[in-house]
Every structure is written in structure tokens, then in C-alpha cells.
Write a structure and sequence with these properties.
Layout: H1 4-20, E1 25-28, H2 31-38, E2 45-49, E3 55-58, H3 62-68, E4 73-75, H4 82-88, E5 95-98, H5 105-114, E6 119-122, H6 124-129, H7 136-159, H8 166-179, E7 198-202, E8 240-248, E9 251-260, H9 266-283, H10 292-305, E10 322-326, E11 333-338, E12 350-353, E13 356-359, E14 363-366, E15 369-372, E16 379-380, E17 389-390
Helix pairs in contact: 7-8, 9-10
């Protein structure tokens, strides 16, 4: 169970934002929002007033909810009974915030009917902003996730053999992570964004872009699952990237390492050195007050110095215009280190920095690590050495 002190801290941060926007409260419906503010996934909704206690609203499972939650719980007998239930708790919101970035339109229209006369406001941004700065508790979970994925990489070299399928190796990596306590999936908030454990990609297949907002995609096992590892055979002299996430108690670490059986050609080797140089330049800017846009421009500047800007974070119209992202309970949290991003870094934000270079005929090379923003210099949370492993 989450400590009451931790849940109160989270509530207070969001309530300050609600008050600034003159909202009476926010009704949360997204899974990680519910967990973040109540300590359980058993709630169907959570109500956070501008002042007062957080309430979890449960249709099922109340028994388990009571075992897990760190906030008061109310039984929700019907959707139409939502306003009356909040009224019994002393709340009659006239200006109500909703997570309109993820809330289904059908639920929105039902809420509009149930809370007749109330004014709705999109509170998606402030809900996400409130989760950017990580507490000591959250950092502990993220550090454990880094240990988890580091233990995986200690075993990866033994799995890599010429002629094996990407999918076969991926399954073994995923089994290792599960045995280490990985929850079995990663969470993303963005619409249509989904990912399993991550991506294990080799050679030309690694350069295949997908619908995912990522510099890597992969062919996957079918058109219906068109990302990640596929049936391609591992070949000598080709890059193999293991871009897997560690997840501990819901909190994640994002990390990519480069492997190959035999050496890579000079273009790929130079690109890997460029990725390390981008990482070094970006990490020097991971300080409070720097914007995500400034960091992206610095990353692009270094890529241009290596004459590799055309291959940075993808190619052509598939280029991703970012170099990193926040992470915690989800892998697309704020801040975004992207072109034009006005997100300001602050102490104890956690970001993944992932400079990668894509060559359509050859594959992908790059690096990814997770960092904690601090006042003077960032802390590298990822443990595994950045080295390109040649077998």
C-alpha cells in the first residue's frame, strides 16, 4: 500500500493547480491516474476536489480496493448516481476537470448528462504536469527497474547466435524480465500508442518505421502486430538493438543497448559514436530551467556535426522530432524533449534520452538511458555500460 504521506503529496500538487484554474475538482478515469492518486486500480473513478480529501469511487472490487487504497472509498452503484454520491461527500462541482486526452467520447456525453449544468474543462495537461517531479519513493522504484533491466543485459550475449530468429531471442529476454518481476507490459498514455516489453530489432528490419511515435518500429510478427521483433534471422555484421523497459512496482526505466555478431561497417560505427556524443551534450543540459525544445536543438546540432542529421531519430517523413521523454508509470510522460517543447525541466524529473540513427538498408544504432534531473548535474539511473557489445 502506498504511504499516506506520498498520496497526500500527490494530492497537494494537483490541488494547487486546480485552484489556479479555479476548478472545483477533477474527475479521473484513466488507470494510472487512479492508481497514482488512490493507490489502487480497483476504482472506476477518483474525485479530487480543489480542497479536501481524494475519494475513490468503486463498482468492483470494493474488498480488494479497501486492502490496497490509501484514500476513502465510496460505493458507486450506477453511473447516473455519480453526482449524488459526490454530493453526499459534500461536493457539488460546478466547474469540473476531465482527462479529455484519454476519456472516451461516450463517457464524456454521459457525464455531461449526469452533471447537468456543470462546466467541463480539459485537465489533461495539469494531471500530467503534476506527475513530472518524482518523490523519493518513486525514485526508489525507478532505480529498482534499472537493476532489473541491467540483469537482463548481463544475459543477452549468451542468447545471440547467428541464424536465430529475432522473435526467439525476444521471447527469452521477455521471460528473463518476467522472472525478475516485470509486470509483463508497458503503459503508454498517447492515443493509439502501445508497446509490449519494448523492441528487439536486427539489421534492415530494425529500420522499419511503424505507427508508434518512436524512432524504431520493426516488422513485428504480423500486419496486426506491426512493431517489435519478427521472424527475421540474426546475421553477422548487422546491428541488433535491445530496447527493453524494466518495470518495478509499475515504474519504468527505458534503456537501449547495441549488439552485433562481428564488427559493424564504418558508417554504423561512426553513427554509434555520434549517438554517444549526442547523449553527452544532452546530459549536460539536463538542469532545472532548461526547456525540452532547447535540448532537442542541441541534440540536432551534434547530429549535424557528424553529418548525420538526415538519419537522426528516423529518416524522411518518419523522423521523430524528439530526443527524449519523461517516464514513470507511463513511458510517454512529461516532459517531452522535442522540437518546440516549452516543458521546463525541474529537479527530480526523470527522463529517458534516446539518440538513435536509422539507415534504411542497414538498420538502427543508438543508445538510451534514463536520467534524474538534479541542480548541478544529472544522475544516470541506468546501470548497464554504454558499450557496443561485439560477439
Amino acid at each position: 500500500m502506498l504511504l499516506n504521506e506520498e498520496l497526500c503529496r500527490r494530492r497537494d500538487v494537483l490541488q494547487e493547480k486546480l485552484q489556479l484554474l479555479e476548478l472545483d475538482g477533477v474527475l479521473l478515469a484513466q488507470n494510472m491516474s487512479l492508481y497514482y492518486y488512490t493507490g489502487t486500480l480497483q476504482c472506476q473513478y477518483a474525485y479530487i476536489p480543489a480542497e479536501g480529501e481524494v475519494y475513490g469511487l468503486i463498482r468492483k472490487n470494493m474488498l480488494r480496493g479497501k486492502q490496497e487504497a490509501g484514500v476513502p472509498l465510496l460505493p458507486l452503484s450506477s453511473f447516473s448516481g455519480l453526482p449524488a454520491l459526490l454530493a453526499e461527500a459534500g461536493y457539488l462541482p460546478k466547474r469540473l476537470g476531465l482527462e479529455l486526452d484519454v476519456l472516451p467520447a461516450s463517457i464524456y456525453f454521459r457525464l455531461r448528462e449526469a452533471f447537468h449544468g456543470a462546466e467541463f474543462s480539459d485537465s489533461s495537461s495539469i494531471v500530467r504536469e503534476a506527475r513530472q517531479v518524482k518523490s523519493a519513493y518513486e525514485l526508489e522504484q525507478i532505480i529498482e527497474a534499472a537493476r532489473q533491466v541491467d540483469l537482463l543485459h548481463a544475459q543477452v550475449p549468451a542468447l545471440l547466435q547467428e541464424g536465430r530468429q529475432e522473435l526467439e531471442i525476444a521471447a527469452e529476454c521477455e521471460s528473463i524480465l518476467r522472472k525478475l518481476g516485470h509486470q509483463g507490459f508497458t503503459r503508454m498514455r498517447g492515443f493509439r500508442q502501445e508497446m509490449f516489453f519494448g523492441h528487439l530489432l536486427s539489421g534492415q528490419a530494425g529500420a522499419a518505421a511503424s505507427f508508434l511515435d518512436s524512432p524504431t518500429g520493426g516488422m513485428g510478427v504480423s500486419v496486426a502486430g506491426s512493431q517489435g521483433a519478427g521472424h527475421r534471422l540474426i546475421r553477422r555484421g548487422e546491428p541488433l538493438t535491445v530496447d527493453y523497459c524494466g518495470v518495478y512496482n509499475g515504474y519504468g526505466v527505458d534503456q537501449t543497448r547495441l549488439y552485433s555478431i562481428g564488427s559493424l561497417d564504418s558508417q554504423l560505427s561512426i553513427a554509434f559514436e555520434a549517438a554517444l556524443a549526442v547523449q553527452e551534450a544532452v546530459s549536460a543540459l539536463l538542469k532545472p530551467g532548461v526547456t525540452g525544445g532547447e535540448i532537442y536543438l542541441e541534440a540536432l546540432r551534434v547530429a549535424k556535426e557528424f553529418a548525420l542529421a538526415d538519419y537522426f531519430m528516423g529518416v524522411g517523413d518518419t523522423q521523430a522530432k524528439y530526443v527524449g521523454h519523461g517516464l514513470g508509470l507511463e513511458f510517454d510522460e512529461f516532459p517531452i524533449l522535442a522540437k518546440g517543447s516549452q516543458h521546463l525541466l525541474a529537479e527530480n524529473m526523470v527522463v529517458a534520452v534516446e539518440p538513435k540513427f536509422t539507415f534504411p538498408a542497414k538498420g538502427v544504432v543508438g543508445i538510451e538511458n534514463t536520467w534524474q534531473v538534479l541542480k548541478e548535474r544529472p544522475r544516470k539511473i541506468s546501470i548497464t555500460a554504454d558499450t557496443h557489445i561485439v560477439l
